[in-house]
Write a structure and sequence with these properties.
Elements: H1 16-26, E1 31-35, H2 44-52, E2 60-62, E3 68-71, E4 75-79, H3 89-99, E5 103-109, H4 119-130, H5 148-160, E6 170-176, E7 183-189, H6 194-204
Parallel strand pairs: 1-4, 1-5, 5-6
Antiparallel strand pairs: 2-3, 6-7
InterPro entries: Carbonic_anhydrase, Carbonic_anhydrase_sf
Family: Belongs to the beta-class carbonic anhydrase family.
Protein name: Carbonic anhydrase
Length: 205
């Protein structure tokens, strides 16, 4: 079988509306955790699940034919270097369309590699070692972490102001200590209740 035959739109009787409806009803994924790929930070999902009273990692759900059709976890991971929001925006948009997201949780961790350089150092290193000018490829504020609280607030604002982020979504920012495994909440930006958001949407139309 061609691997491209194993796509949802190739399943007889399925269309985008039916697929979305299935995921909204059958999959209890509600919280996106944006975290770093650093192996020292792999316990972040468990810590967030405990903080929010949610399930992680959960179990894969199979149908009567043995096909994997879902999971019992409430948490989705979006892994980006430094847990930076700029790299997570597309995922937030796509996942909200597919499942309906309630929370986006940014979790940066102590002694992260991205706290080890300034934007200028990274840009100059690329020029010197690779002969490439990346100065226009990235916004300077997205390149490194120099202050955790400032960076989390910048990233939370980036998510909040993105057209792909519904006004109903709650945004949180945490710092995870890789030595103590403790979370420290930096920010909590609650979304607008669904009814109020619908009213605003109607006014905009």
């Amino acid at each position: 079988m061609n691997v491209n035959d194993k796509t949802l739109l190739k399943v007889p009787g399925l269309n985008p509306e039916a697929i979305r409806d299935f995921f909204h009803k059958a999959v209890p994924l509600r919280t996106i955790v944006v975290m770093c790929p650093d192996p020292r930070a792999t316990s972040i999902p468990e810590a967030i699940a405990k903080e929010f009273g949610q399930t992680w990692p959960g179990e894969v759900v199979h149908d009567d034919k043995g096909a994997a059709v879902g999971s019992t976890t409430n948490i989705l991971l979006n892994v980006t270097t430094g847990a930076r929001a700029v790299d997570a925006l597309r995922s937030i948009t796509s996942l909200n369309y597919l499942i309906g997201v309630e929370n986006v949780v940014l979790v940066q961790h102590t002694f992260c590699g991205t706290t080890g350089w300034t934007p200028d150092v990274l840009i100059e290193t690329y020029k010197r070692e690779f002969g490439a000018d990346i100065s226009r490829q990235h916004v300077l504020e997205d390149i490194s972490i120099l202050d955790f609280e400032q960076t989390l607030r910048y990233d939370a604002a980036l998510i909040r102001n993105s057209p792909g982020t519904p006004k109903t979504i709650n945004i949180f920012g945490y710092i995870f200590d890789i030595d103590t495994k403790e979370l420290s909440k930096v920010l909590e930006d609650r979304g607008i209740p669904i009814r109020s958001a619908a009213s605003l949407s109607g006014q905009a139309a």
